[in-house]
Amino acid sequence: SEERSLNFIEEIIENDLNSGKYKTLVTRFPPEPNGYLHIGHAKAICLNFGLTQKYGGYTNLRFDDTNPVTEKTEYVNSQQEDIKWLGFQWKNELYTSDYFDTLYDFAVKLIEKDLAYVDHSTADEIAAMKGTPTEPGKNNSYRSRSIQENLDLFMRMKNGEFADGVCTLRAKIDMAHTNMLMRDPIIYRIKHAHHHRTGDKWCIYPMYDFAHGQSDSIEEITHSICTLEYVSHRELYDWFIEKLEIFPSHQYEFARLNLNYTVMSKRKLLQLVNQGVVSGWDDPRMPTISGLRRRGYTPESIREFCDRIGIAKRDNLIELSLLEFCVREHLNKTANRVMAVLDPIKMVISNYPEGQSETLYGENNPEAEDKGGSREIPFSKTLWIEREDFMEVPAKKWFRLAPGAMVRLKHAYIVKCEDFVKDVEGNVTEIHCSYIPESKSGEDVSGINVKGTIHWVSAAHAKTAEIRMYDRLFSVESPDAEEGDFKDYLNPGSMEVIKNAYIEPYLASADLSSRYQFIRKGYYCLDKDSTAQHLIFNRTVGLKDAWAK
Ligand code: ATP
Ligand code: MG
Ligand code: MG
């Protein structure tokens, strides 16, 4: 893509590298394995991996697995697959849970410095003593416990002597601090739960703020990039690093990606999966990377999208149509053109010999340098064409089929409509044409010029396919911002299934990595549920933005 000016993170990094503050750039992508990755994560992936591709150094993949209840190995695996598919490779695969021993030692160190204490208050009591943004909080009696008592109690917390919620470990900072997060935040809580990696070894787990920055520091991450919700956490991030006297990682924040007509939190996407609103995390309507992949998106188009939206410092809502634009642009360059008839009507060529057929050739992609090679297309007396390409009473400037009118059949001949057949209800069921043998594409000596070209498939050779057409999952721009539950705003027409489309026989050899332009229709790819007996194609995106104003 084109040259663009540096974003603010690149400016910081260039300064830090030029001044010698850091010799090597180290970034990380830190997903919590509590769901599948979505397009917002793709933004963070492209940013973190993109920076080390540009400036050298490396990027770690760190699973932020401090919450045993919501995390699963299935998610760890899918997240890795998605990052690789996007085209990135991490240096080290790491888990916050691998640092549980170190983090425990860090907590002990804080206690020894009289900077942490075990608090036996209930959650409600803690909240009541916290104060408000305009009023200071209050110290409770546990805050003055001795270092020795705290060391003993914390060890007993670790040893499983207390039930969930009985006590917590809190940092001793300042209950009157202007930043509410600095008012003695909880850093460890008791949770007797099985962890997907550490099993039952631990019954105390560090809170995000006591795990994230320290993990960055352990890995000597130089630039820890996160989204804007963490701006107020930065003070705490720096406080722990300073008090623990560990490697000075720094946190930088950028605006999270929000896309219109969808929701983006893993928690909400999980609801859609669990309640059967979609068929799974990789339902082609989902904003997940696996959903986009199944829908036919390419890694290139997603990377281009992330590049185009840039790095913002303020929250904003990005148009889904920009994502669609990016995939359309990439597929236009790379997808083979084929013919598929989605709403078929029969065309009989009266002057073509019965029982005969011939092989025509079609170039696969006029946009590609080598034209994508060519393929064989069988032609015969009876064809399927698109119902909408015929009008009994033609409109003004109608260049397609109508009684007496001529069109070119793509890659084949010019035909003239001689007659048509209707059923008792008045629906057109068959169109009768004559063809002009001298008008064959590529060797046309007929001297006839026609304005319209339509697509078709030979009835005797066509394969039947199911076509799944997708649209926006929600009918409002910001389902999160609406009144009531976000699921009240689902688009009832988000999926339309065409059971009996006819496609070129060439498409029977499609595999999951192939993407096609069904000419005049849009971009399509094979679905993973497809079998040789039952072909299924997904529509990635139409040829034009159907929603454009
Ligand atoms: P979710 O609510 O979807 O679970 P999260 O921020 O809790 O989001 P994490 O797994 O913790 O999800 O995210 C891993 C990384 O991806 C974090 O650094 C986070 O900042 C980043 N990230 C998550 N969502 C977005 C988004 N919409 N835009 C940009 N970055 C994001
Ligand atoms: Mg998170
Ligand atoms: Mg989350």
TrEMBL record:
It comes from Pedobacter nutrimenti. GO terms for molecular function: ATP binding; glutamine-tRNA ligase activity. Its EC number is 6.1.1.18. This is Glutamine--tRNA ligase. Residues 453-527 form the tRNA synthetases class I (E and Q) anti-codon binding domain. Keywords: Aminoacyl-tRNA synthetase, ATP-binding, Cytoplasm, Ligase, Nucleotide-binding, Protein biosynthesis. A motif ('KMSKS' region) lies at residues 263-267. Gene3D superfamilies: Glutamyl-trna Synthetase, Domain 2, Glutamyl-tRNA Synthetase, Domain 3, HUPs, Ribosomal Protein L25, Chain P. Residues 335-435 form the Glutamyl/glutaminyl-tRNA synthetase class Ib anti-codon binding domain. The gene is glnS. HAMAP family: Gln_tRNA_synth. It is an enzyme of class 6 (ligase). The keyword Oxidoreductase does not apply. The keyword Protein biosynthesis applies.
